[in-house]
Amino acid sequence: MIYIIDNFNDHGKIMYDIIKYHTQQDITRIHLLNEIPTFELYALFTNLFDLVLDNDIIYIPWQKEKDYYLDMLATKLSTKCWVVASAGNANQDIENFSPTSANGVYAVGALNKSLVKASHSNYSSNNMQWIIGTNYTVNDSTHNGTSISAAIYTAFLANAIIENDLRLVEQQIAQYHLKNGINKV
After folding, report:
1. Interior angle at CA 127, CA 152 and CA 41, nearest 5
2. Nearest to residue 108, comparing CAs of 146, 155, 58?
3. Which of 31, 79, 83, 133 is close enough to 148 for a disulfide, judged by CB 3.0 to 4.6 Å?
4. How far apart are CA 91 and CA 35, in angstroms?
5. Residue 77: exposure state from Cβ atoms within 10 A (0-12, 13-18, ≥19)
């Protein structure tokens, strides 16, 4: 099961479409929890802990200023399921933001088509995942940002979980970069 937690109306639907396009998941197993007000996030994260299973993925296509309580909840969730979050688009260290700075959260940054960090993407000196997240077309509209990259990563992770082979994540990323990058390897 993939749970997309978003607090923006159209943004969450775009992330849903990207995941649906790149994953082998049955679309009935992708749930969009959309337009969640910030003040309800704590309760939602707490309730999700009782709901999720080992191979479920929680995808968070946003970040907010450092919030230690939200980081604690995200870390707790990551002990029970996969938690993927977009790194953010402020060209700053992810340690300044939640939930990307939480232990156990897979933060995903954006590369441009030259396979270089996109100028807007947040970053980290720690381990991060990187995927092309620029000039991505969904429903006849072009989008840029780390939420695009993280949605693609979430789909690739779901595919690897279905196949019970986590090495497939890196293989899918490499294939995606070969197909979409301008620097062909």
Report:
1. 60
2. 146
3. 133
4. 25
5. buried
Scanning the structure block, which residue is given the tokens 């720690």? 126
The CATH number that domain 2-180 falls under is: 3.40.50.200
Q: Which residues pair with 93 in a beta bridge?
A: 123
3-state SS, the chain, equals CEEEECCCHHHHHHHHHHHHHHCCCCHHHEEEECCCCHHHHHHHHHHHHHHCCCCCEEEECCCEECCHHHHHHHHHHHCCCEEEEECCCCCCEHHHEECCCCCCEEEEEEECCCCCECCCCCECCCCCEEEECCCEEECCEEECCHHHHHHHHHHHHHHHHHHCCCHHHHHHHHHHHHHHCCCCC
Distances (CA, A) of 27 to 56, 131, 140, 164: 14, 23, 21, 19
Q: What is the pLDDT of residues 56-113, one digit of tens each?
A: 999 999 999 999 999 999 999 999 999 999 999 999 999 999 999 999 999 999 999 9
**Is the pTM above the cut of 0.70?**
yes
Write the Ramachandran bin of 173: left for phi over 0, alpha for psi from -120 to 50, otherwise beta: alpha
